[in-house]
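User: Can you write out an input/output pair for a complex, sequences first and structure second?

Assistant: Here is one pair. Inputs:
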Amino acid sequence: MTDDARKFTSISRRAIVAGAGASLAAPFSFNIARAQQGNIKVGFPVPLTGPYGAEAQDQVRAAQVAIAEFNETGGLKGRMAELLVRDDKLNPGEAATRALELVEGDKVDFVVGSLSAAVQLAVNNVTKARKVLYNSISQSDTINEAKDFSPYTFHEALNPHMTAGAVGRYAFQKFGKKVVFLTADYAYGYEMVNGFQAAGKAFGIETLADIRHPLGATDFSALLPRIQALKPDILIISNFGRDQQIALKQATDFGMKKQMKIVAPILLYTGRLAAGAQAFDGVVGGTSYYWGMEKTTPSAKVFNDRFRKMHDGKVPSDYGSLAYAGVKTFLMAARAAGSTASEAVIPAMEALKYDYYKGPEYYRKCDHQSVQSVFIIESKNAPANDPDVFNIVATDEPNEANLRTCQELGHT
Amino acid sequence: MTLERTTGRPARSSAAFREAGALGWARRHRAALAAAVILVFPLIAPFKALAVLILVYGLYALGFNLLFGYLGVLSFGHSALFGAGAYLCGIAFVHFGAPWWAAIIVGAVSGMIVAAIIGALAIRTRGIYFAMVTLALSQCVYYLFYEAVGWTGGENGLRGVDVKTIDLFGLHLDFVDPLTRYYVLAAFVIASLFVLSRILASPFGAVIEAVRENEARARASGYNVPLVRFVAFVLSGGFCGLAGALLALHLSIVPIETLHYDTSGLVVMMSLLGGMGTFFGPFIGAAIFLMLENLVSLWTVHWQLIVGAAFVICVLFFPRGLWGTLLERLEK
């Protein structure tokens, strides 16, 4: 009797565990089943948690705008688009797993996303093997190269060569030829320095020093006097996020802005808002988009207004806007092709000449790099909480000559 | 202090395997039962990619547990073994055009080689010192691979470990298909389970546990304790290297994060969550950890909050880990 009772309880315990497992899995299998009814699915892995979480959430907001616009205008023959947001945790392994789940489990039509060079290469490696279209929305030079490229790979973001080139051409001509680099010691920093060096050749710049600092540095005070002693015309600070904010703040405190011009390849809108006007005052850098250009660019005005309407009056950030364009190009190309099949959408993407938010753009055929303008911006002394923090001082118009050639990248 | 006594219960000698009842039967056939679980697992897993990931990290945790649970030595450098296995498998495949099975062997062997190097340097230290030395050496391995950009892709990671099809005994398998990929990789994991079970059931397995329970007594009984520790570390490296190699084939990339100390911490967490010193506990720990993290993050951005709370609950109510506590209850 007691034996039987024990057996019974042990079975029911197992049943409970199994039941719990099944109920845990149930909502997800439901999701998968529902998703096969013909919606156009756009997988969207971005680092919602981690140091770039704020940027990633802005990317999601912008992507939602693209999805909403597409659905309001009738979708693709009545097929509506949906966005499947996943957290890649800024980790390439996680991102590859998310991409596998999106492609194999959710059977997405397109993948758009990423906010790091390594992550986009990981996602790209997964999608290209499965012939799924991927549009990367963060900077990388490597993804353009023949080794990583595939016909299924698109790159809506700028790459370091374009960005540093545009900023370099502006700065070397205006501020002088003697240059010191202060560079974060990882791929992003190196690629930016290479971009500046390539652009600087035409101007005959003289590199006085290339000083490397470890990623996540909190103190630059040991390096700054050395830079002051070199007396350069320009100090180029190639780092990102918090590193950039701290470096600029300390350079300001050292009074370096009076001795030289400080230039950064990318000035982040969110970074400038976080660090405040003083640290960034007078610093010149590049960006793919600044919302303030709506005064002169009609498509920017349309996009910003739509974004404000959907998201409580907020304005889109630079990286956010890339997500908008990255999602929208796929959807519009699918509409033009009348299909979401990769083989049909690729030629439609290659044929696209679009102006969705920043002026004219198109994808170069050999590496699917978006040929687009780069804006040179200067931080201005705006009061706190004022979203208008940059002046656009120059525009590097879309031009394939500013990209590395297809031969250089290894495309035949 | 040393960690040898953390489990605080008598060594499960081979006599324990002869105990009567269902539990004894299950214990005698632990590898076969674990294999059965692995075979049916994809049927209940929400995503096949997640299921494969659980396989890989499960094997990684099993390999780690050989050292942590059975030998009673805490290593904080296992990412070096796991990552080296992944990278060298990938390098063999990408740069030397090795067939997939040879690349897997390379991965497992390189896990053992790296373990032998680290082990030779670290094995005589004890407790927290062993943890620190292995952590430091694994960081050396990390920078070695990070700097060798031509071979490893450096920061960007190694790409192109693309196994598309597998031809085996006249069978033509599509490795891109998630279920096929699962079962091909599962074959390696199941084989490892049997090997591991055999090792633990062997006289050497008994010696490992004897060293954990009382090192002085083991030495007095004539066992060469440093050698036992060294061999256990190298064997552990083999399993972890194999797990790394399977990860490389599964993801088709090797991210530099596999060598990061986070990956070392992760496996400690998984082993503790499932139950260190139990045969299948670490695997369960890996499964629960990854399921929680992946499924909750699908549902909310604030997944860390929920996963964190779940851990606190596990620590409070399942002090021997989920599987370990369950086994303990069943034993009563």
